[in-house]
Each structure stands twice: as structure tokens, then as C-alpha cells.
């Protein structure tokens, strides 16, 4: 019954706009609605791309997008882990508003079916919508991308899988979360998955052009998430690299993005396509996160500050570096505004970025941003940041002067400290509790780690296994 009510709720929210879909579709040619391509990397290191300063991993295609578009230097995801970050991206709302605060491993969990995705809304304007790659927002039919506004889905429903077809591990008939799923059906594939996803997206783009309809293509790559696997020819290119597999995987990711962009050019679609690139959260220990502190799963900058660029030839000035506080919450409202959509069924937490990067609007997209995974929290107010760990403590930093979060300013700035704590409390009162628990075994590990990180020490305990060994030794 709850599932039925959820479907009815979304239907009611979208009913009035959906009535107009047929008329809107007939006007597509006249309106020249922009296409949208989102390139989403997984667990990418902050400094592992040329446009982010990498000297030993060439990424010429992303560098070209960066030089022709806008690079956001103070850009953040809504969470430092995968699934909640994706929920915030697709809804344009803090995922904490609907309880999607933690990652999950079990099929009964997923993104609240009363939430409206960017694909849901774009379809009311006649868009073809597709997602290729990682979903990680639920494996049940009512959580499936085809039930969340996407006409086309080719990818996997879980949080990670290998890059090559493997019927004994990821691609068995019973591997619902890792097998390749094409619109609800299990499919085999040949080749390297990063390439396969790009090829499928290219087919979709070409088909959309033939249909003369605008499109949304979300390429949700699993690169460079573990397991670390790359093509032999790419491994050979980086045989002397200290992080050979990550370098090869990143190179292949860039190559796949280049193939999609080349298709847009050949099809005459580049100037009418708004493009985004970013990672879903901070890099892991496999990535180069310099100069940021910590990595994925933590509320320091290394957990949620990500490479982030926007490209729209002829509409967005190229070669721009934008320093204003920005979020992946802003992707959906930017896209919808570009598509001429001013109203949404639910209020969004993001803003349209185009007026800020084009100089039409002063100030920053955000003065405040917030993060929370259970007891681990953070708040921004302009250049100041609070990181708080329940039962451990909290610290205040000035990121303009200390992006690496090394100098604690609690004593020096008591008024700023109080404001950040008050802002965080007020925000927490405005959202809801997590709809499901976090991954078992990590709470005590995180307390040890935050205690070390607050003192600028390398964490001594980083996994439940290490904690168990420590307790045995004692």
C-alpha cells in the first residue's frame, strides 16, 4: 500500500505539467530547448585531472572542456559518499529532507518515490531522458531508473562492480545489483565498461537527434571506483606510473568523454548542449586529493569538494575560473531554467548557476552549505567551515587562508564558531532523521579517525577490521 501511495503522490505532483507534455513536445523545434549531458565520475581524486593540476595523468578532453567553459574551484557534492550524493543531485534537494542520509547495501532501501527527479521534470517538456552506468538508488522495481523519469537505462543498480563481463562474479543471473541491466532486463556485454557506457550514450544521442527531441543523458561512470581494473593497452601506457591502474582508468574515462563530445560536434549538437562534469564525492586513498584534507566518507574538504566544470559553447564564456560557493544541488535548477522551466513540484535547495558565471548576478550561489552522515557533520558560512563529530568535538577553519584545514580557529573566532554551530542546529531542525542506519561497524572507527584528524594526525584506525585487531591486542 505504501508503494501505491508513493506512486500516486508523484503522479499528483506531476499531473498538471504532464497534461501539457504533448503540446510542449510539438513546440520543441520552435523553442530550441537545450540538450543536457552530465558526466559523473565516481570517487575521483581532486587533483587527478589536468585542469585540476595533475602533471602525470593526461586528460586532454576534460581539459578542453575546462578551457572552453567554467571551472568551479569551491564546488561540493551534497555528501561524501555515493548514494546520498546521487539522491541530492537528481532531486536538487538536500537528501536529508527525505531521509537518504546513508549508503545502503540492501535492496529494500532506495530514493524516496515521492521525490521528483530532474528527468521527471524534463519529460514534461518533451525531453528524451537516459542514464548510463551506476544507479545506486535502489534495486526494487519502484526504485528503478525507468520508474524515476528515465526512458532509457543501461547500467547496474548497485554501488560498484567490475569493468569486464564476469558471469561468475558480477554478471550472474542472481546478481541483481551488479549485473548489467537494460531497461529491466539482464544483458551481457563485451569490452571495457567505461567504453561501453559511452558507446550506449552515443547511440542515444544519435537516436534523439533523429527524433528531433531534446535529451538528457547522464553518464554515471563507475570509474574510478574499485575494483581497480583497466584495459591492457592503457596499463601499458602507464607502466611506470606510481598509481598505474588509477592513471589508466582515468585516461580511459577522459577518452570516453572525448568520444561523446566528438559525437555532439559531428551531429551539430554541441552549441545546443549544456555539459557538466564532476565526481560524486571526494577521492579515496587511491586518488590524489591534494591539497585537501582527508577523503571520501569524511566531512573535511577531501570528502566533498570535487572537480566541477560546466561547458556550453556560445552560451557560457570559456576559460573562466569561478570561486563562488557552489553545489551539485545547483545542477538541476540550472538545467531546468535553461529548459524554460520555472516551477517544480517541490522547492529546490540549489540555484541557477548561469547568471552567476555570466556576470548577471552578484554574490555567490550560496552563503551556506551543510553536510551530515549520522554523527559526522559540517557547515559552511562564506569562507568559514565547521566540522563536527558527535562525542569527539568540533573545529572551525578559514578556508580562504587554509584550504587544507590545518589551523583550528575555535579560540580565535568564538563568534564565528557560535554562528556556525547555530546555523547547523537550525538546518538539522529543518531536515529529518535518516530513513535507514549507516553501515554497521563504522561508528567507532570514525570516532577514532576524527579524533586523529582534528589534531592533524594520520588516522591510526581506518576500518572495522583494524579496530577489531586493536581490541584483541588490548
Structure overview:
The chain has 474 residues and is an alpha/beta fold. It has 2 domains: 2-357, Alkaline Phosphatase, subunit A, CATH 3.40.720; 368-473, Arylsulfatase, C-terminal domain (2-Layer Sandwich). It contains 15 helices and 16 strands. The model is unreliable at 1-8 and 15-29 (pLDDT under 50).
The global form is: globular
Average pLDDT for all residues:
94
How many strands? 16
Estimated structural class: alpha/beta
Enumerate the spans where pLDDT stays under 50 for 5 or more consecutive residues: 1-8, 15-29
- Tell me the distance between the termini: 51 Å
CATH architecture of the largest domain: 3-Layer(aba) Sandwich
Helix content range: 25-40%
CATH topology descriptor of the largest domain = Alkaline Phosphatase, subunit A
Could you give me the name of the CATH homologous superfamily of the largest domain? Alkaline Phosphatase, subunit A
At the first level of CATH, the class of the largest domain is Alpha Beta
List the helices and strands and how they pair.
Blueprint: H1 2-19, H2 21-26, H3 28-31, E1 35-41, H4 60-68, E2 70-72, E3 75-76, H5 82-91, H6 118-123, E4 128-134, E5 152-156, E6 181-182, E7 185-186, H7 193-211, E8 215-220, H8 232-237, H9 244-266, E9 273-279, H10 301-304, E10 308-311, E11 320-322, E12 326-327, H11 331-338, H12 354-357, E13 368-373, E14 376-381, E15 384-389, E16 393-398, H13 414-430, H14 443-454, H15 464-473
Helix pairs in contact: 7-9
Domain Sulfatase N-terminal: 34-341
Family: Belongs to the sulfatase family.
GO molecular function, one term: transferase activity
